[in-house]
Amino acid sequence: MIMKGKKGVILGVANNKSIAYGIAKACAAQGAEIAFTYLNDSLKKRVVPIAEEFGSADCVYPCDVSKPEEIKALKESIEKDMGKIDFIVHSIAFAPKEGLSGRFYDISKEAFDIAMDISVYSLIEVVRELKPLLSENSSVLTLTYYGGAKYIPNYNLMGVAKAALEMTTKYLAEDLGKDGIRVNAISAGPIKTLAAAGIGDFRFMLKWNEAHSPLKKNVSIDEVGNSGMYLLSDLSSAVTGEIHYVDSGFNIMGMPAVEFNED
Ligand code: NAD
Predict the structure, then answer these.
(1) Quick one: which residues bind NAD(+) (predicted)?
(2) Deepest of 117, 131, 133, 161, by most Cβ within 10 A of its Cβ?
């Protein structure tokens, strides 16, 4: 039981297709005690049964990260119900629809600000507010995508947000290393989730990844969950500031491997 005695909070479960659900499943299977958050009342209905499934019925809290008062209240609730914690999972992103297809240069300042606030700044704010509860040797994990490192069609505004999130991971890792807190990101391959449904032509991304990755398959939330569990556990005690790809190796490809007819 690699996570026995570890307690943590997972932000970003929307349903049992969420990457955060895969991470919760892997951590719970290794003995972790987990608190969950939900964005709003309609998602509460889905998240509460999931918390029950993992024995966390008493540790489910509202947290819309665009509302600083809800992040502060989350800290108070966790402190009261759980005391110190050992890990935080930030599996949250949002961009208005206009930012996920069409011409990138058309993006409004309003959409840009919303995407950066919810998908990037929230990591900093959540970590800062919950820091007093983090034990020494704790671990923070966020989720990114290859579209933050290279151009991916339609990923547009979210690509820019993920680039900022990846650098935020590295700056936080340096800053919090002296406090014994590690900060890492998983760059997951495309997975059909609620958030992914908002990205233009997502099915093509799935097909392309499957066809051109070394492992010739897409990744599952269980596979991301297992890698997430490793990064949250003491198995990765010397790993911080890392962008760890869980994408069937897609990111190593400079060019699709096709066979040319020499004639
Ligand atoms: P998901 O829809 O299951 O999860 C996204 C979560 O973000 C939801 O739980 C939603 O409630 C939450 N959220 C949105 N706005 C919020 C707010 N204001 N306050 C609090 N929570 C808010 O989809 P997912 O694919 O599991 O996404 C999780 C993370 O993984 C995201 O950061 C996403 O960008 C990243 N990611 C996804 C993929 C993919 O292909 N699905 C690939 C790589 C990275």
Answers:
(1) 12, 18-19, 64-65, 92, 162, 191-195
(2) 161
